[in-house]
């Protein structure tokens, strides 16, 4: 085989997801191996290197066909140098990841933030394929995001470009503190964590809701209750959608993208979250900024990070 291939690594706190992609962004093979964060920095880096070797060993491809290796890592980093300043849930503080991995693997390594990488994956071969300007939200435990313009990730001057979850969008009187230290971030209301917090608050207030019978509330529980006609759950979902829609309206007149893509676990609610988001977007966005803009659900699911990481080598 002479086909050129690219390896993508999606580094998580529990597992390392590693994939092989072709030059068109098609995922050819994927494996998962343990991260073993409890063993420290060296173990995590060794495990990343081992996973890239392993996937080639288990595939019909050769190491010589690998044109580059990309990695999506949660945390704050110097993208050009591939230097990780801090990864809150991983033992990676002040680590020159690019340099170390290139020494271990003998291949070019490119590193970026995991949310940026997921956005790049959707832009390359997912819901944003063929789109010039794409804004991608990852609605999970937190709210991540990425902005891809003509195939390139918008990093910003200090690497904070596309940190959509930390737009301070909730009014002061309604605001709660975000994990980043700010008050009223989008993440406090439109993430799974924010939805769960609002549901627990409602139960503690004594609001009438079927959620009172749920032992450990999840975002899915809230969505299921809303679908069943629970008024309290519907109010929570609409609040999450309202601020998400307002943030999209803000970006529509800032970046003016062709498409917004919603990914992550919260997006699994589908039309329940998508329809009110679209309504809010239309209400708060000037007509000209709505032209040829659509808001859709992500296509690549949990593979977006792996595919986007591989794409770093080409972008």
Plain-language structure description:
- This protein is an alpha/beta fold and 315 residues long.
- The chain folds into 2 domains: 5-120 and 303-311, Nucleotidyltransferase, domain 5; 131-298, Nucleotidyltransferase, domain 5, CATH 3.30.420.40.
- Helix content is 36%, strand content 23%.
- It contains 10 helices and 13 strands.
- It has helices at 41-57, 97-105, 114-125, 187-190, 192-205, 219-227, 231-252, 271-284, 287-290, 304-311; strands spanning 5-11, 15-21, 27-34, 66-73, 76-78, 83-87, 92-95, 109-113, 133-139, 143-149, 152-153, 259-263, 294-297.
- A 5-stranded mixed sheet has the order 3-2-1-4-8. A 5-stranded mixed sheet has the order 11-10-9-12-13, covered by helices on one side. The chain has a 3-stranded antiparallel sheet with strand order 5-6-7, covered by helices on one side.
- A hairpin with a 4-residue loop joins strand 6 and strand 7.
The total tally of domains equals 2
Distance between the termini: 24 Å
Q: Share of helix among residues?
A: 25-40%
What's the CATH class of the largest domain, please?
Alpha Beta
> What characterizes the major β-sheet?
5 strands, mixed
Which of globular, elongated, flat, extended, rod-shaped describes the shape?
A: globular
Q: What's the Cα radius of gyration? A: 20 Å
The secondary structure category is alpha/beta
The number of helical elements comes to: 10
Q: What is the N-to-C succession of helices and strands?
A: EEEHEEEEHEHEEEHHHHEHHEH
Widest sheet: strand ordering: 3-2-1-4-8
Ranges where pLDDT stays below 50 over 5 or more residues in a row are none
The pLDDT mean sits at 94
Q: Do you know the CATH topology of the largest domain?
A: Nucleotidyltransferase, domain 5
CATH superfamily annotation of the largest domain: ATPase, nucleotide binding domain
CATH architecture of the largest domain: 2-Layer Sandwich
How big a fraction of the residues is strand?
A: 15-25%
